[in-house]
Design a protein that fits this description.
By secondary structure, this protein is α/β, with parallel strands linked by helices. Helices cover 47% and strands 14% of the residues. It has 11 helices and 6 strands. It has a 6-stranded mixed beta sheet. The N and C termini lie far apart (72 Å).
C-alpha cells in the first residue's frame, strides 16, 4: 500500500512539473495562416506599422469611430449598411494594434493610441468624430476622449470594463476573465498557452466553439448573438483576432487591462 502511495505521489509530482514546463515555455509565437475574413482597407502609419479599418454607412454622414472588444476586429456587426445610412452615420471600425489588418504594437499604452487614430482621421479627412468603445475597447475609447481633445465630439461605452482598481472588480468579473488577466500580468507564457488552447478548439470546430462561448451569456445577449448577421460578424471577428498569433493578445491586450490604465479622467470633457 505504501509503495502505491509513493508511486501515485511521484506520478502527480511529475505531472505537475510537466505542466509547469509546458506553461512556462509559452506558445510558439508563430502567426496563423488566416486569410482576411472580410473587407478592409489599410494605411501606412509613421514608423512603419499598418492600420487596418473598414468604413460603412453614409460617406457624408456624422462620423462614429467604433473601438472593438477582445476578441474583435473591424468586422464586428453593429448594424446593416442600410440602417447606418438611414441614420446618417459614417461608421469607421479600425483594427486595434495586433488585430486583423493592423500591425502589433505591444509597448503601446492607452494614452498613446491617439497617434494612430489621428493619422486615420487625417487620411479620411475627418475633423471631428464620435467614439464608441465596445467591451475591451472601453479604455481605448476613453483614452481617445482624454487625448484627442476637440476632435472627439462624445464617447459612448457598451458593455464597459471596470478599471483594475475598482473594488467591485473581483465580485463582478467572471473567474475565467480574472484568470486570463492575472496570468497575462504575472505569467504571460501561461496566458499564451491558455489562449493557444482556445485557438486550437476554435480551429477544430468554429461553430461549436462559437456556440459554447455565447450560450453562457444572458438570454437577451444569446438572442442577439445568434441572429445570422450578428453571428457571422462575431465569427469573422474571432478569426481576425489571431492573425498575428497569441503574443499581441497576451502582452498587448490582457497585460494592459490588468494594469493601471493611465488615463487622465479629468481630460475627458
Amino acid at each position: 500500500m505504501a509503495r502505491l502511495v509513493v508511486w501515485a505521489v511521484s506520478i502527480a509530482v511529475l505531472a505537475v512539473a510537466a505542466a509547469a514546463v509546458w506553461l512556462a515555455s509559452g506558445p510558439s509565437g508563430r502567426t496563423l495562416p488566416i486569410p482576411p475574413q472580410g473587407p478592409g482597407m489599410t494605411i501606412a502609419l509613421r514608423g512603419g506599422r499598418t492600420l487596418g479599418y473598414r468604413e460603412t454607412g453614409d460617406p457624408a454622414g456624422a462620423p462614429v469611430l467604433m473601438i472593438h472588444g477582445t476578441p474583435g476586429s473591424r468586422l464586428l456587426y453593429i448594424a446593416s449598411d442600410a440602417e447606418l445610412k438611414s441614420w446618417g452615420v459614417r461608421f469607421i471600425q479600425p483594427d486595434r494594434p495586433g488585430f486583423g489588418l493592423s500591425s502589433p504594437a505591444d509597448s503601446m499604452e492607452y494614452h498613446d493610441y491617439y497617434r494612430d487614430i489621428e493619422q486615420l482621421l487625417d487620411h479620411l479627412k475627418i475633423e471631428r468624430t464620435g467614439v464608441l468603445g465596445w467591451s475591451a475597447g472601453t479604455p481605448w475609447a476613453l483614452a481617445l476622449g482624454a487625448t484627442l481633445g476637440t476632435r472627439v465630439t462624445r464617447v459612448g461605452i457598451v458593455g464597459a470594463l471596470m478599471t483594475p482598481d475598482d473594488e467591485r472588480l473581483r465580485g463582478q468579473t467572471p473567474l475565467s476573465s480574472l484568470l486570463f488577466i492575472w496570468t497575462a500580468k504575472h505569467w504571460p507564457s501561461a496566458a499564451g498557452r491558455l489562449i493557444e488552447g482556445l485557438a486550437a478548439e476554435w480551429r477544430k470546430d468554429p461553430e461549436r466553439f462559437f456556440r459554447s462561448q455565447n450560450l453562457r451569456n444572458s438570454k437577451v445577449d444569446v438572442d442577439v448573438a445568434f441572429r445570422p448577421e450578428v453571428a457571422r460578424g462575431l465569427k469573422l471577428s474571432n478569426a481576425e483576432t489571431l492573425r498575428y498569433g497569441f503574443e499581441p493578445l497576451v502582452r498587448g491586450e490582457l497585460r494592459r487591462i490588468g494594469a493601471p490604465w493611465g488615463i487622465d479622467w479629468k481630460a475627458i470633457r
